[in-house]
Amino acid sequence: MNVAIIGASGYTGLELIKLLLTHPKFTITYIANSTGDINVQDLHPCLKDVLNIEVSKANANDVAAKADLAFLALPHKTSMSFAKELLALDVKVVDLSADYRLELDTYEEHYCAHEDKDNIPNSVYGLPEYYKEEISSAKLVANPGCYPTASLLALLPFVDYIEEGTQVFIDAKSGISGAGKKLTELAHFANLNENMMAYNPFKHRHMPEIEEKIKLVKNKEFQINFVPQLIPVTRGMLISVYATLKDEVNVEEILEETYKNNEFVRVRKSAVDIKSTAGTNFCDVFVARNKKALFINSSIDNLLRGASSQAVVNANLMCGFEENEGIPKLAYVP
Amino acid sequence: MNVAIIGASGYTGLELIKLLLTHPKFTITYIANSTGDINVQDLHPCLKDVLNIEVSKANANDVAAKADLAFLALPHKTSMSFAKELLALDVKVVDLSADYRLELDTYEEHYCAHEDKDNIPNSVYGLPEYYKEEISSAKLVANPGCYPTASLLALLPFVDYIEEGTQVFIDAKSGISGAGKKLTELAHFANLNENMMAYNPFKHRHMPEIEEKIKLVKNKEFQINFVPQLIPVTRGMLISVYATLKDEVNVEEILEETYKNNEFVRVRKSAVDIKSTAGTNFCDVFVARNKKALFINSSIDNLLRGASSQAVVNANLMCGFEENEGIPKLAYVP
Amino acid sequence: MNVAIIGASGYTGLELIKLLLTHPKFTITYIANSTGDINVQDLHPCLKDVLNIEVSKANANDVAAKADLAFLALPHKTSMSFAKELLALDVKVVDLSADYRLELDTYEEHYCAHEDKDNIPNSVYGLPEYYKEEISSAKLVANPGCYPTASLLALLPFVDYIEEGTQVFIDAKSGISGAGKKLTELAHFANLNENMMAYNPFKHRHMPEIEEKIKLVKNKEFQINFVPQLIPVTRGMLISVYATLKDEVNVEEILEETYKNNEFVRVRKSAVDIKSTAGTNFCDVFVARNKKALFINSSIDNLLRGASSQAVVNANLMCGFEENEGIPKLAYVP
Amino acid sequence: MNVAIIGASGYTGLELIKLLLTHPKFTITYIANSTGDINVQDLHPCLKDVLNIEVSKANANDVAAKADLAFLALPHKTSMSFAKELLALDVKVVDLSADYRLELDTYEEHYCAHEDKDNIPNSVYGLPEYYKEEISSAKLVANPGCYPTASLLALLPFVDYIEEGTQVFIDAKSGISGAGKKLTELAHFANLNENMMAYNPFKHRHMPEIEEKIKLVKNKEFQINFVPQLIPVTRGMLISVYATLKDEVNVEEILEETYKNNEFVRVRKSAVDIKSTAGTNFCDVFVARNKKALFINSSIDNLLRGASSQAVVNANLMCGFEENEGIPKLAYVP
């Protein structure tokens, strides 16, 4: 099946290219960014002698002429206008931006005015462990944010056991690639190496995404208190969820039970680390309890399970392929 | 004033040497480790052409003959037998181990049988912001653990405002130097770089130390749920404390008010980082609130404020010097 | 074709497992280490839910019963005795140790007494760019060392142009994975991060390997002066070769010409970096000239092109497959 | 003695502030950058509660009114016009830029037109081991570049023993702080961590500086072939010098003899590392020989010995103080 990648310049664009190059069912027929007129090897020198293709200036009609499905690795706002055009041209879309992840009100409160309201109700939240069926019949999938992916996979199994009215805290740590290629003071090696810091505590836009999805999946409302942090690591994400249980339940069993049929969630017997999931689509999860205090610990590759490989899983499901077709499981270890 | 360093081989021993070498009031007259018979330059090659002194095999009578105060940078258990001898010989002691930090019962539950019970009641917990007066007249100071130092300085100002019966969570991150020089798999560069992981969640021995001191200082009992983590950083520590407030109080003001007269706690207006305190005795603290959800964020150098420079502050107070004599304030930045 | 991996515990063993798991022609039928009696997932936790196979205690007859070709990722000396047995049982061998890389005299001078002298003349040095034909008909391939691979691919094209009698210098930098999993002071994160240092200057055992192969391939003798260094990087290797040219020749052209038909050597227009080859079998090479002074710069993944993926290329050739079957080209970027 | 720091925003400006704050003889009376109107704590948040002083917009008359000596941590070209004014106002100058390091012709070939030609003959090259006497009576000292400092201290002792007409190669590695605070792709953590690369091989402007000084000090001409490289390290520099000796001389003795009376050069018995000099003014040097092949290995802190602490040593000498007054010797270890 022919696919297009729109937004090839960034990290998630590169990861999409790499994943699709070795995918047994998808063929890349179109790659675009905002300017075009460059060979993909000049955009990503690591692709020299690997892929020789011209990057186009993104155009919806060209996509429709060449591909059945498009991955949009675009900034929010840019994404919605392009998705709208593609959907009208009957191209399936996996959108890696935030544009179709939220209900309209939540979106407009935290991002900007929405310009493709019609397609919001048709979009499916692309967290395969919870929306597999809906994704399979969707034309538009909103790929979850990296923090929400790791946080929801950790938290959702326990939502029914958490004492209502108590606070849920998420202490999240991300590698710097999560902030993209942008040159910022924080991303300067001299500032980040041998360092670590929180940013936007209680104010990150992934916080409402987590709250909304918990309500949607479990019909429970919790105040989610989310503190993202940068660690001196390029790729990877580690999440600590802290909550208060109603009872001293068997949390290991709950976790095992929830994910026993899910190929890409691995329940671990000890605290998880970043490297075991880096390079893969796995989400590793571990849980511990201190009387009624709950600690759930998850790890993903922020660029893969938090973006590009989860997008390809979604595309697999949308196209009727096996969920695991071409999806990486071999970690960047050592 | 003449001082001895017992336990010169480890990281905290080296930091003590460096601090005392440039201290205006203290003179190092005796350095020992468990074997002796080595020049300090061979133990720590960075001291070549800086300090030329033989390291002795630790002996209490020799210490008493040469020094008025001794810093013990020894493993727990070893420390108490040596401290006992020194105190009997009228040498003041700053003990960097855990041996005199806890009440007898707590100690024996989490460490081992205590062999110097008589001196426990005379020991003072060396957190200067809360025990300055007691330290000033003490003969034996138990230097706090690194995690408790950063956690207590963050948490104590808010203890009276936290809803009773709610859970307090501490998500703590430490550089690998906190685990000492020991060669372990976790400390191998190939395992730690580009990685991060929790260890001993809810089971670390600093957890009861934090609980006990909160009760001691504030007469409040809270279940402290402590999750320590290793980050790919050599020195530094970053703490997230999460708790639930009774009311939506002005947390910034509470923090400012608590530490307005403390030279070595800096209240910050935004999330703290590790590098701004690395190389110094500062504890940087920041606080944020989301309705009744509380986030307190602190940073220290685990080897200095978490061990050696706090020990020298304690020694300053015990000897009647200014708290800040010879105490570093200039960070390892960039 | 069925293959065995002997020596599964180390980094190169893990890389072999990962490569062969996704290889279209080879099937892993036997994995062994020195103790056996462990599941591969317990040896390498990143393989959980990926590969479920018991690791055996290495036994030559078992290998012969189950596999046509064996990869030996064993320490030198251990390797030769095992290879000898396998060859007698008609199993093809790719040996990743040093045991068959050198002529007998050179080997015994720098390593130890050789216990399988008979097979030395039949072994082929597995540098495919220079020995493709010999490898294709070999039963025993000696996989080159990591430093020699990167150094020879850089240096060989220029040997005929270097002024005879002048010194050739190689300033080589390796990630710590090159030293294996062993717990050493140098490999401790606190010692290696924010650090870098040479080790064994002019005394590393890869120095005679480079000298010998230059003589063998080009029939020229040069004094190779080799200085290996450790960098705060897990995987990757960067080489600077410095030499003096006879004439001010067009070095870019020489390099292009040499490798124009080699899929896994990429000639670069600017200085090479480590990350563009990490995760791949590529060797990136760049050359610059300052009058008669020559600088050749090469980069490889020390665990792949410097060990495991080069071993699989050799196995491909030995079995009549395409050189590039199952060989990775997609770098660990970002 | 009152001193001014002009150019307080960069890394070397910050290091000057830190050095001078604890200096027993110098008092900072004026700090400036190009904009002024900011407190130094807002420029460098690590100075909060350490130094409370307004940063001025740089003005020569203000400097002259408040200080006897000025440190210029300015970009080249900006520096010369400011130095000219200060010298006319009888303020002593230590210039950390390149503006007075080179002879006029060399300077104009590699940098730009010189606008203060008159002061060039009066400037002294501030490498104290070789120009101590001249520095002591100078009004204008040109502080050497970081690469030339480490390269010259390594190479100068051996110049007389190197075979004439042979090539000298310098393989130099610098932490990223050497490139300043500028936000560049290379300095982005995701590009530099787990990476390393050469830049401007044979074309860096420190190459003619090294060549010129060798000729000046030793009256010998050598083609210096200089390859700078970036390593994933914040501060520190490691140099490999490779050359060909006339005879198989005792290189250890030559090195020992050269520096036996120099407090800030430490001759090491094994290969040097970066961390042992980080945070100090030391240059560590080691030498090895393979027949006539020579390897000299040096390490400095690029921001201190390569810039700010060497500048303070020069200021000490210019003002008649002891060379080591206020100069740091305690490394950032671990």
From TrEMBL, chains A, B, C, D:
<keyword id="KW-0963">Cytoplasm</keyword>
<keyword id="KW-0055">Arginine biosynthesis</keyword>
<feature type="active site">
    <location>
        <position position="146"/>
    </location>
</feature>
<dbReference type="GO" id="GO:0051287">
    <property type="term" value="F:NAD binding"/>
</dbReference>
<dbReference type="Pfam" id="PF22698">
    <property type="entry name" value="Semialdhyde_dhC_1"/>
</dbReference>
<dbReference type="Pfam" id="PF01118">
    <property type="entry name" value="Semialdhyde_dh"/>
</dbReference>
<keyword id="KW-0028">Amino-acid biosynthesis</keyword>
<comment type="pathway">
    <text>Amino-acid biosynthesis; L-arginine biosynthesis; N(2)-acetyl-L-ornithine from L-glutamate: step 3/4.</text>
</comment>
<dbReference type="InterPro" id="IPR050085">
    <property type="entry name" value="AGPR"/>
</dbReference>
<feature type="domain" description="Semialdehyde dehydrogenase NAD-binding">
    <location>
        <begin position="2"/>
        <end position="138"/>
    </location>
</feature>
<dbReference type="InterPro" id="IPR036291">
    <property type="entry name" value="NAD(P)-bd_dom_sf"/>
</dbReference>
<protein>
    <recommendedName>
        <fullName>N-acetyl-gamma-glutamyl-phosphate reductase</fullName>
        <ecNumber>1.2.1.38</ecNumber>
    </recommendedName>
</protein>
<comment type="function">
    <text>Catalyzes the NADPH-dependent reduction of N-acetyl-5-glutamyl phosphate to yield N-acetyl-L-glutamate 5-semialdehyde.</text>
</comment>
<dbReference type="GO" id="GO:0006526">
    <property type="term" value="P:L-arginine biosynthetic process"/>
</dbReference>
<keyword id="KW-0521">NADP</keyword>
<dbReference type="GO" id="GO:0070401">
    <property type="term" value="F:NADP+ binding"/>
</dbReference>
<comment type="similarity">
    <text>Belongs to the NAGSA dehydrogenase family. Type 1 subfamily.</text>
</comment>
<dbReference type="InterPro" id="IPR000534">
    <property type="entry name" value="Semialdehyde_DH_NAD-bd"/>
</dbReference>
<dbReference type="GO" id="GO:0005737">
    <property type="term" value="C:cytoplasm"/>
</dbReference>
<keyword id="KW-0560">Oxidoreductase</keyword>
<dbReference type="InterPro" id="IPR023013">
    <property type="entry name" value="AGPR_AS"/>
</dbReference>
<dbReference type="InterPro" id="IPR000706">
    <property type="entry name" value="AGPR_type-1"/>
</dbReference>
<dbReference type="GO" id="GO:0003942">
    <property type="term" value="F:N-acetyl-gamma-glutamyl-phosphate reductase activity"/>
</dbReference>
<dbReference type="InterPro" id="IPR058924">
    <property type="entry name" value="AGPR_dimerisation_dom"/>
</dbReference>
